[in-house]
Amino acid sequence: MISASKDNMEGHNLAISAADISKAFIVPHERRDTLKEGFINLFRKRTYEHFRALDCVSFQLRPGEFLGIVGRNGSGKSTLLKILAGIYRADSGKLDIRGEIAPFLELGVGFQQELSARENIYLNGTLLGLTRKEIKARFDSIVDFAGVRNFIDLKIKNFSSGMRARLAFAIAKEADADIYLFDEIMAVGDEDFQQKCLNVFREWKDNGKTVVFVSHTPNLVEEFCNRAILLDGGKVVFDGTPGETITEYHRLIK
Question: CB of 56 within 8 A of CB of 233?
Answer without folding.
Answer: no
